[in-house]
Amino acid sequence: MDPQAAPAVMAGTTRRGAELHDLLRELAPLVLGVVARRFGDFATAEDAVQEALIAADAQWPQQGIPRDPRAWLTQVALRRMTDYVRSEIARRRRESETALEAEWTVPAADAEPVGEEENETLTLFFMCCHPSLTTSSAIALALRALGGLTTTEIARAFLVPEATMAQRISRAKASIKSSGVPFRLPSNEDHAQRLRTVLHVLYLMFSEGYASGGGPRFQRPELSGEAIRLTRSLYALLPDYGEVAGLLALMLLTDARRAARSGPDDELIPLDKQDRSLWDRAEIAEGTTLLDRALSKGAVGPYQMQAAIAALHDTAARAEETDWAQILALYELLKRISDNPMVKLNHAIAAAMVLGPSKGLALLAALDEDPHLAGHYRLDAVRAHLLEMVGDCSAAITHFRAAAGKTASVPERDYLIAQAARLSAAT
Amino acid sequence: MKYILMMISNQVGVDTYRAWSPSDVQTHFAYLKVLNRELAESGELVQVQRLTPPEQAKVVRAGKDGEPVTDGIFPESKEFLLGYWLVDVESAGRAYEIAARLSGGPGPGGTRLCMPIEVRQFMTESAAADL
Question: ipTM score of the complex?
Answer without folding.
Answer: 0.86
